[in-house]
């Protein structure tokens, strides 16, 4: 028998600033690296996105109608700080106050991501996260966030998907130079991001006795491709290097032994200054947020130069690494139209493993089904595959809760259609359709999909449909 969802379970949905807002040149917003990325031809840019910047009031009203108890959005650093963090941009500050106040008006818990891929471009020009000074910039920005919004926000997420940024930097767009950082540089950047995060955890806890803060990692359980022992080792490599290595530093304050060895063997070990480990150990999260979409199936490296190109479907973030592991197909699971593995039991397993390891409450900040939804001649969108996907994942969460895992809430991606990280506007995840295509903005009208009515019922019945 399954337990019911807790009464205060945070039924929600998510977006990020750059994928939803648009208005990239308005109100003295600075350019972010995302604004400067090179987009493939015919794929929507982020300049208008879903026009949430102008429509937020109407959109949040729709979220209230949907019955959301929580709404996760990110704050664009480039909207609220002026060049060099010199002062705050009041227009940007007000914009996010307005979003938060609208949420609170409807009894929706606002959940804030502080940084969702969109570093200010002027910082990138100074070396980005490779430059240790970026840590101080991030701290200043964080302090402004806590001072401005601290009294209204109970859940903060520091960095969205640090592991995606470091392990698969190309997945979120190409820098203007066209050159991605080297691996050595990436792990140095990783170290700096971890330091910034630990410092932010610490200053937040000095300021707030009641609020919660945590990292948001892309986490998926893995399966070994066969019972061959070398596949088991490869799968463990993958799970450690792709997931735990980031969270172990965030939660325990230290690099785990496999990660250290991996970095040392490849001469990728970052420069670590004298007090860094003290800094890392001094900042602790209150909970862990995960973005979960799929499981990965992992086989031993063939070591013949093909590990990195061997793909399981189109899932760009499931690449292999020479000598460490390679991706394999899983014949037991379905895939989305974009080739992403659909595996609800994998969510239950991921939650168990995460809880086993850290025993911290878990917030699911993304999960969803990307598909090219079409409006029919009656102006309706019958996204039944999405409903099926979400239904199964909600059931898996209920199973995990029944197992004894502490799950605080579920915030699927995405509240409303947004621009996909690298696949434009045709790849939709929302409960609310935005009437535009990659190339034609139309009127940007909002249309409730079938999943909207379905999720509304689920929320009103606390997890049942
Ligand atoms: C996550 C990101 C989101 C979102 C989602 C779906 O990695 O945090 O920003 O975009 O993936 O990915 P995509 O848009 O590539 O389908």
CATH superfamily name?
Glycosidases
Instruction: Tell how many strands the DSSP assignment holds.
Output: 15
Distance between the termini: 17 Å
Spatial arrangement of strands, main beta sheet: 1-2-3-4-5-7-12-13
Mean pLDDT across the residues is 94
GO molecular function, one term: beta-glucosidase activity
GO biological process, one term: carbohydrate catabolic process
Keywords: Glycosidase, Hydrolase
Protein name: 6-phospho-beta-glucosidase
Q: How would you concisely characterize the structure shown here?
A:
Belongs to the glycosyl hydrolase 1 family. The chain is built from 15 helices and 15 strands.
Describe the structure.
The protein has 465 residues and is of the alpha/beta class. The protein has one domain (10-218, 342-460): Glycosidases (TIM Barrel, Alpha-Beta Barrel). It has helices at residues 17-20, 33-36, 52-66, 77-80, 90-105, 121-125, 133-149, 162-167, 183-207, 229-252, 257-265, 276-282, 344-358, 384-403, 450-460, and strands spanning 10-14, 70-74, 109-115, 155-160, 212-218, 222-224, 288-291, 296-299, 326-327, 334-335, 341-342, 362-366, 407-410, 432-434, 446-448. Strands 1-2-3-4-5-7-12-13 form an 8-stranded parallel beta barrel, surrounded by 5 helices. Helix 3 runs parallel beside helix 5, helix 7 runs parallel beside helix 9 and helix 9 (183-207) crosses helix 12. The longest helix has 25 residues, at 183-207. It is globular, with a radius of gyration of 21 Å. 6-O-phosphono-beta-D-galactopyranose is lined by residues 16, 19, 160-161, 164, 218, 291, 366, 370, 413, 420-423, 427. 6-O-phosphono-beta-D-galactopyranose binds next to loops.
């Amino acid at each position: 028998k399954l337990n019911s969802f807790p009464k205060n379970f945070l039924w929600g949905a998510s977006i990020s600033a750059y994928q939803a807002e648009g208005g990239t040149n308005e109100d003295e917003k600075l350019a972010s690296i995302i604004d400067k990325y090179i987009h493939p031809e015919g794929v929507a840019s982020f300049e208008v996105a879903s026009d949430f910047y102008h429509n937020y009031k109407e959109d949040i009203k729709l979220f209230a109608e949907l019955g959301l108890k929580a709404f996760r959005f990110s704050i664009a650093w480039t909207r609220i700080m002026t060049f060099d963090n010199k002062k705050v941009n009041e227009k940007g500050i007000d914009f996010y106050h307005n979003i938060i106040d609208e949420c609170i008006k409807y009894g929706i818990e606002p959940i804030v991501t502080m940084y969702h891929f969109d570093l200010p471009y002027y910082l990138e020009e100074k070396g980005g996260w490779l430059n240790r000074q970026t840590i101080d910039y991030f701290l200043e920005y964080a302090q402004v966030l806590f001072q401005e919004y601290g009294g209204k926000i109970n859940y903060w997420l520091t960095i969205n998907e640090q592991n995606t940024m470091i392990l698969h930097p190309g997945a979120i767009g190409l820098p203007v130079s066209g050159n991605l950082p080297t691996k050595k540089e990436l792990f140095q950047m990783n170290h700096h991001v971890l330091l910034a995060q630990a410092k932010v955890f610490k200053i937040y806890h000095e300021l707030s006795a009641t609020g919660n803060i945590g990292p948001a990692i892309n986490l998926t359980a893995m399966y070994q491709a066969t019972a061959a022992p070398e596949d088991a080792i490869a799968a463990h490599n993958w799970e450690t290097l792709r997931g735990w290595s980031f969270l172990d530093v965030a939660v325990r304050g230290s690099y785990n032994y496999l990660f250290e060895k991996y970095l040392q063997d490849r001469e990728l070990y970052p420069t670590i200054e004298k007090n860094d480990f003290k800094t890392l150990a001094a900042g602790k999260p209150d909970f862990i947020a995960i973005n979960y979409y799929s499981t990965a199936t992992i086989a031993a490296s063939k070591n013949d130069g093909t590990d990195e190109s061997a793909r399981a479907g189109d899932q760009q973030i499931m690449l292999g690494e020479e000598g460490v592991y390679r991706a394999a197909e899983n014949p037991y699971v379905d895939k989305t139209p974009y080739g992403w593995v659909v595996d609800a039991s994998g969510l239950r397993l991921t939650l168990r493993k995460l809880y086993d390891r850290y025993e911290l409450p878990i917030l699911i900040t993304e999960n969803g089904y990307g598909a090219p939804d079409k409006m029919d001649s009656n102006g309706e969108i019958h996204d039944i595959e999405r409903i099926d996907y979400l239904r199964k994942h909600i059931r898996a969460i209920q199973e995990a809760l029944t197992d004894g895992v502490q799950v605080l809430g579920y915030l699927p991606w995405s509240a409303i259609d947004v621009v996909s990280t690298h696949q434009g506007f045709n790849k939709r995840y929302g409960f609310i359709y935005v009437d535009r295509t990659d190339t034609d903005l139309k009127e940007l009208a909002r249309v409730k999909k079938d999943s909207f009515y379905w999720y509304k019922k689920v929320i009103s019945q606390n997890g049942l449909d």
